[in-house]
Amino acid sequence: MKLLRVAVAFVTIMAATLTLSGTAQATPREGNKATEAVREILNLNPGSRQISKDSVELEPGVIVSLPPTDGADMGTHLTCEWQWLCMWQNKGGGGYKIRFFDCDRWYYLENWRMPDNRDWRDKISSIHNAQSGGSKGRAEFVDTLGNGAWHTVGHVNTQDGRSDLSKDMSSDGRNWNDRIDKVWACAS
Ligand SMILES: [Ca+2]
Known about the structure:
Elements: H1 2-21, H2 29-44, E1 49-52, E2 55-59, E3 62-65, H3 74-78, E4 85-88, E5 97-100, E6 106-108, E7 126-129, E8 139-144, E9 150-156, E10 160-162, E11 182-184
Antiparallel strand pairs: 1-2, 2-3, 3-5, 4-5, 4-7, 6-11, 7-10, 8-9, 8-11
The structure holds calcium ion.
């Protein structure tokens, strides 16, 4: 089922890309600002590609989206797409959004860079898990410590979320905010 959805998503992305290639960039000043941020993301993440006005596929199954600059589509930015695990830079779905599709693998946040050239580690402040699969869709969030040690910050079940990680306490007595380094999005 998941493989089929991957294929469908790929076709959708291809269609979006084809549409983009024939579309002029947005003209308002804020549109230019967004375009500049997208260009930085593309430059800093080799192999990435733009899939919509404000979204870049960093690799298959990993998409970063800019916060809306015109206020018109904040709902989309706050929504976590079905079968994805979504995380945001700021609490309440603010800032940049990064999302993951695939199960059975770790996603290392050090692999992707934001427009300021810093990577995604120690950034995440809100989460929504829209993966399917019930308990198998439970996501795990890990803080990598020094000397190869690590700490499981916590878990989020499917169809659940955390809007302000500074209010979620981990087993080590620290909260979850700005410390997640790697993510297990789901198990198949
Ligand atoms: Ca943050």
